[in-house]
Amino acid sequence: MYKSIKAAVMGSINMDIILSAERLPETGENVLGSSYSYAFGGKGANQAIGLSRLGAQVKMIGKVADDANGNRLIENLIKNNVDTSGVARDGSSTGLAAILIDGDGKNRIIVYESANSEVVPEQAASLIKDIDVLLVQFETNEEAVIASVNTAKTKNIVTVVDCGPAKNFSLEKMQGMTILTPNENETEALSGIFPADERTALEASRVLYERSLAKFIVLKLGERGCSLYDGKEISFFPAYPARVLDTTAAGDSFTAALALEYVKSGDIKKACDMGNKAGSIAVGRVGAENSMPTEKELIICLKK
Ligand code: ATP
Ligand code: RIB
Fold first, then answer.
1. Which residues, judged by CB distance below 6 Å to any ligand atom, belong to the binding site of ligand 1?
2. Buried b (16+ CB within 10 A) or exposed e, 148-168
3. Which one of 37, 40, 86, 170 is most buried, by most CB atoms within 10 A?
4. Which domains can be identified in the chain, with CATH numbers?
C-alpha cells in the first residue's frame, strides 16, 4: 500500500514493563496485579515499526545506551525492517517506561527518558534528507525535535508532529508543520482546553492552530475517533468499533497510518479515517509495538 514512501522518525526508543491489575492503586495503596511482561516500546520506535509494517521504508533517528535493553531494542527494529543507522548507542542508559493497565484497558505511563533526552540537534539534522515524511514526538530532546522539523520544512518534507507525552512544548519554534496531532490530554496541555465535546474541540484546535500554524490539526479523541481542523472548519471522524484490551500505542498506530495515507493520497480526510482504522486495531492488543497493524490487517479492516 505504501511501499514507495520513504519516512524518518526522530523519536524515543524504550523498553516497556507492562503491569496489569483490575484496579490501579491509589496513593499509598498496594493492589495485586494480574500479569506482567516486558515489551518493545517508545513512541518513536512504535511509530517507526508502525510505518514499516504498513510497507514504508523507514529510517529511525534516536539514542539508546550500549546496554542489554538498548541491544534488544535495536535488534527488534532491524527485525522490523527499520534502518537503525541513525540511532546512536552512546546514551547514559536506555529509556524505560512503566505502563500500568487497568481492567478497562486504560493505561498510566511513567517514562524515564534517559538516552532519549540526550539526542542532539546535529544528529537529527544531518539525517533528514531523501525522505517524503518526517514523524516526531515529544519524548526526546526539545531542541532536537524543533531542529528536525525546521530542517524538514526547508526541504519540503511532510512533517507530522505527534504531541506525546503531554507537555507544554514550544510549538511557536517550529511553526508551519504539516500535521499537528495531539491526543486529549496533550491537547489540554498545549491549549489549556480539554476537548470534551465538539465546541471545546473546536476551541482547542483554534488555539493549537494559532500557536503552531500547522496546515492541519488532527485531535485524537480515543473512543470518539478524531477531529480535523484546517484553519476554517472542524470535522469529526468516528472511531471504528473495537474490543478494548489495552489502549497503549493506539495513538502511535494512528499517527503512522495518518502520515502514510496523507503522503500517498494528499487527502487529509482519508488519512484521518485510516488513522482511526489503525487505532481501532491497536486497542485490541496488549503492548506497544505489538499493537501496530500490518498492511494486510489494515486491508482486511478496510473491507469491513
Ligand atoms: P495512547 O494510549 O497510545 O497514549 P492516545 O491517547 O495517544 O493513545 P487515543 O486518542 O486514545 O490516543 O487513541 C488513538 C486512536 O485510536 C483514536 O483516535 C481512535 O482512532 C483509536 N481508538 C482509541 N480508543 C478506541 C476505542 N475504544 N475504540 C475504537 N478506536 C479507538
Ligand atoms: O505511546 C506508547 C509508548 O509511550 C510506550 O511504548 C512507552 O514506551 C511510552 O513511551
1. 107, 164, 183, 220-223, 225-226, 239-240, 242, 244, 247-252, 254, 275-276, 279-280, 283
2. bbbbbbeeebbbbbbbbbbee
3. 40
4. 6-12+43-90+116-303 (3.40.1190.20)
